[in-house]
Amino acid sequence: MVSSQMTRVNQICLDSSFLLFRQLYATPVIRLLYQPHTDHELQAVKTHRIRTPPKRVDSTRGLLLDHECVYFFQKGKIMSFEAAKARLETAGQSHVLQFWSELSAEESSALLEEISQLKPEELLEHCRAAVEAASRHSSADGRLDARMEPVPPEFIGSVRKSDEERLKMWGDEGLLQISQDRVAVLLLAGGQGTRLGVPYPKGMYNVGLPSGKTLYQIQAEHIQKVQELANLKHGCRCTIPWYIMTSEFTLGPTEKFFRDNEYFGLCPSNVVMFEQRLIPAVGFDGKIILEKKNKIAMAPDGNGGLYRALVDNKILEDMERRGLEYLHVYCVDNILVKMADPVFIGFCVNKGADCGAKVVDKAYPSEPVGVVCRVDGLYQVIEYSEIQPETAELRGPGGELLFSAGNICNHFFTRGFLKEVAEKFESQLKQHVAIKKVPFVDGEGNLVKPTKPNGIKMEKFVFDVFQFSNKFVAFEVLREEEFSPLKNADGAPLDTPTTARRSLLAQHYRWALAAGGNFLDEQDKPIPPKHRIKTPQQSAKSLHLYHTLARVWKSC
Ligand SMILES: CC(=O)N[C@H]1[C@@H](OP(=O)(O)OP(=O)(O)OC[C@H]2O[C@@H](n3ccc(=O)[nH]c3=O)[C@H](O)[C@@H]2O)O[C@H](CO)[C@@H](O)[C@@H]1O
Fold first, then answer.
1. Widest CA span in the chain
2. Ligand 1: nearest atom to the Cα of 369
C-alpha cells in the first residue's frame, strides 16, 4: 500500500518519460491509483500493461509503483516535491505546502498536479496584479465613465430600422456562407452559474417547457435547423461545427450529458469541447488562498479566457482545417439565442467586419447588461458592474437612454481576427477584478467560511478584444425575439426559469400566429389572438417586424 511517508513523488509523462522510467528503474509492478477514464489513459493501461485498481476510484491521478514511489501523469512534465517547493518559493507562495506532512499519497499527488500547472513567473505576476487591481477597484481611478461615448448610429445595423429587402439580403448572404461550411458557433460554457444555484452546468437546465427540453437540446436543434435551411436553399449538405468552451467544473458533466443524449442527433466529431484555464484566488496579502489543505482555491479565468483556450487547445488550427472563416460566439443562458443567425452573419460579412456584437435596447438604466460604447474612440463594452448609476441614467435629446446598446453576449469574429488576437493581443487584455468571499483553511487546517469578502478573483472578458478590431459593427436586434437570459433561480424578479420559459412560449405563439395558425380551446373553439402574453417591451411596430422576419426566414 502507499506509504504516507513517501520518499519520492514524481510526475511522469505517459508517452516518453514513462518508458524511460521503466528502463531506469526496471520497475516490474505498476498500479493505477484510480480508474483510467480518458482515452489516453485507457490506451496507456493497455500499452504498458498497468494493473488497474480494484473498484476504488480516486480523484487523484496517480500511479503507484511497488517501491513506494508515487508517480502520476501530467502532460509530459516531471514534477517532484522539490521542484514544486522551488516553484512556489520563486512566486512567494511557499505556504501552499504548509500541510504537506499531513497529506496522504493521493492528496499530495493532487496538490502536486495543481502546482505543476502554475508557472512561477505567471503566478508571481498574477498575485501582484490581483493586489494592485483590488486596490484600484476600491478607488475611482479606474473608472471610464467620463470617457464613454455612445456608438455612432452608422456603426449600428438594426433589425428594427431595416426594411424587408435588406434583411433578406443579409439573411441570404449568411445562408450562403453557412452552405459553404464557413461558419461555426462557439458556446461559452465555462462559468459556474453561481446565481442560478444548480450543481451542474447551466446548459443542462430544463426551464419547464412542455417538451422538457434543456438549453443544450434547444441549441443543438437550432444548429440542425439552420443547417437544414442552408441545405434546402443551396442543395448542399453543410455543417455548422459547435465548439464548446468548458472549464474543469463543467467539462465532465457536459461531455457525459452529450454522450447520454447521443449528441442530440449531431455528429460527435462536429461537437468540439475544450477546457479553459483556472487561476488561483488571491488574498489581500497577495497569497494564494487554500480551500483545502491540499487544494488551491481556483476559478475559471473569465469568458475572455477564450483566447488562451483557443491556442491551448489548437482550436484555431481546427477551424482552419475545416475551412471555417466566421465564428458566432454566444453565452449559454439565453433561451432565445439564434446561433449562426444568417441575418447577423450576413450583416457582418456584408459590412466587411472582423468583429461584431449583437445588442438590444436596454430596458431600464440599471438592467444588468453591459453597454457597447466607445472609450477614447475605441469600441468597448462597459460591464454593468463597472458603470456608475449616474452614467447609466444619462439621456439623449429625445429622452432615450444615451448608453442604450445592451450587450447580449453574442459576438461575431473572423478567424483572421481571432488569430491576430491570440498572437498579438491576448496578454494585453484587461484584468477585471471581483472581490469575493472565498472559503479557506486557516493555519490549523480548519475550514473557514468568511462572513466578509477576503479574496480577489481576476477575470478576462470576451468582449475586451473589440478595441483591437479593424472594423467593428454592432447589430441591434429585437429583445423579445432574441434575449431572455436565465441568470437567477425562481423567486427573483427577473431572468429566471419562469421568465425564460414564458419568453420562448410567447415567441412560438407569435410565430404560430404569423404563420396563419389559430389556437383552439379544449372545446375546439378558436381562441382570439391574445396580446396579453406580449412582453412589456413589445410594441405594434415590433409585432409588424415579427411578421417581416418570419417572412424573411421562410423565404431564405
Ligand atoms: C463578461 C460578459 O460577457 N458579460 C456579459 C454577460 O454577463 P453575465 O454577468 O451574465 O456573464 P456570465 O457570468 O453569465 O457569463 C457569460 C457567459 O460566459 C461563460 N463564462 C463565464 C465565465 C468563465 O470563466 N467562463 C465562461 O465560459 C458563462 O458560462 C456564460 O455562458 O452576459 C450579459 C448578457 O446576458 C451581458 O450583458 C454582459 O455584458
1. 84
2. 37
pLDDT digits (tens, 9 = 90+) for 252-296: 999 999 999 999 999 999 999 999 999 999 999 999 999 999 999
> How far apart, in whole angstroms, are the C-alpha atoms of residue 12 and residue 76?
6
Claim to verify: residue 457 and residue 529 sit in the same structural domain:
no
Q: Which residues have any ligand 1 atom within 6 Å of their CB?
A: 188-191, 245, 276, 300, 302-303, 305, 331-333, 369-370, 381, 383, 407-409, 461-463, 485, 487
| DSSP structure string for 375-415 | ETTEEEEE-TTTS-HHHHT-B-TTS-BSS-EEEEEEEEEEH
Indicate the burial class of 157 (C-beta count within 10 angstroms; 0-12, 13-18, 19 or more): buried
User: What ligand 1 atom has the least distance to the C-alpha of 459?
Assistant: 24
For residues 482 and 536, membership in a common domain is answered with no
The verdict on residue 53 lying in a domain is no
* Structure confidence by residue, pLDDT tens digits, 15-26: 333 443 444 343
CATH number for the domain spanning 462: value is 3.90.550.10
CA angle 25-28-29, nearest 5°?
A: 115
Within a domain: 232: yes
Query: What is the span of the domain harbouring residue 532?
Result: 500-553
Which residues of the chain have a pLDDT value below 70?
Answer: 1-79, 138-142, 531-556
